[in-house]
Amino acid sequence: MPIFIPTHHETTIEWRNESTQKPPQQAVYQQESNARSILKNAYAHTATVWTGDFHNAKQVLAAVKKQLRKSATKPITDIQTAFHTHRMRQAQNSRIVNMLAVEIGTGFSLDLPRAPIIADALTDVYGTPNDQPFLLPLNLLLGFIGAHEWHKKGVYIPALNTEIHVPFGVFSPLRGEYLDLIAQAPLPPNCQTAFDIGTGSGVIAALLARKGVPHITATDTNPRAIACAENNIRRLGFADAVRIENTDLFPQERADLIVCNPPWLPAKPTSAIESALYDPDNAMLKSFLNGVKSHLNEQGEAWLIMSDLAEHLHLRQPDFLAQCFQTASLSLIDVSHTTPKHRKAYDKEDPLAFARQQETTFLYRLKAV
What we know:
- Keywords: Methyltransferase, S-adenosyl-L-methionine, Transferase.
- This is Class I SAM-dependent methyltransferase.
- One of its GO terms (biological process) is methylation.
- GO terms for molecular function: nucleic acid binding; protein-glutamine N-methyltransferase activity.
- It is a single chain.
- By secondary structure, the protein is of the alpha/beta class.
- It contains 12 helices and 15 strands.
- Helix 7 (about 205-210) links the parallel strand 9 (about 195) and strand 10 (about 215-220).
- Helix 4 (about 120-125) crosses helix 5.
- The longest helix has 19 residues, at about 80-95.
- The relative contact order is 0.10.
């Protein structure tokens, strides 16, 4: 349902955002402004709509972010508190940053000096062009533009020796180490059928097809993910082997192999895309483990891809997974692991660097008992 907010022109206009943040209470239009003025408006729940030069707006946005970084509190020594404080600070800063907005004209146009053409990037996100103007946070627009470029370029997946193309709103497999674990793991004997639970971009289903599994069902409930997976599977030439199904977790049938890469951290997501990262109370993880046995063929295997970052952040007990396996009547066949190679693992400025530097990613191969 569209959200409309009042402006100082005594009119209302639609406000769009991809997060669960509350919309501003009102919006003011300004041709020029500075970080201090925008922050003052933001703390008063007022959005500043930029009407001047686009490049100047980007500079002011950078200044706003710099001010917010300066105001950050000192690190907290308690590990779990550090994580929750970091998440709260992220959410608060995101809300403030998103109070600098631009007005998107009809047909996804942006009528500002030196503004880029944004129609393709917004079509990637929203589909049908708008016939009424709306307000969009500038930071989010820049994210859309960057995501569109990545969508066109693709993310190279060494295990596939090709690119996966991912639009905004779908989790991108930038962390390739877990895909290498899947590529290297031996399939169950005579593996004819497989499920990829929560397929996202379709990359795991594509890997299973490349490994020679002839019949694969990939499931998801995110419409953007389903469209993305279908496009990737078709482009890679695996359409005969892979079927995409709009289903929460498991299809009705059974399979020789069931693979799941659930969100790794038990915390509340603040946007749809964060649902690929955060799993409140480990709900998806537990639902997968507790339901997988009834969907496995005899001698079948369940593969769980999981990081131990939550353990290092004290969000899960070290024996949590072992207890989940036992509760679900699953036993461990084998476990392989690797260390992260992504940029954040080496970013000393990251407030969670102490945990990321210890992180290990695992592939658990399980069977029913």
